[in-house]
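sorry for the late reply, my laptop died twice this morning and i had to redo everyting from scratch. anyway the thing you sent over, i finally got around to it. pasting the sequence first so we're on the same page, its 71 residues, then the predicted structure underneath. double check i copied it right bc i was rushing
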Amino acid sequence: VEINVAKALLTLRFSTAQRERMRELLDKNNCGTITPAEHAEMEDYRRVGGFVDLLQAKARLTLKQASEPTA
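ok and here's the structure:
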């Protein structure tokens, strides 16, 4: 079961619409035209992305350990 969960975690991605929205928010931030609400939304994406990165790193480690021969 752990291996299936790890594999599923590695498939998690932001949708195309979400990636487009993140790009829009980043562009506004870089231009200095982002609103406080948009800035909060951008930070939410950043936090979720960081959390997914952490989960995927742990998933890769789980898969690596599962593929190593036991001594």
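The helical segments are 2-9, 16-31, 36-67.
thats about all i looked at so far, will dig more tmrw
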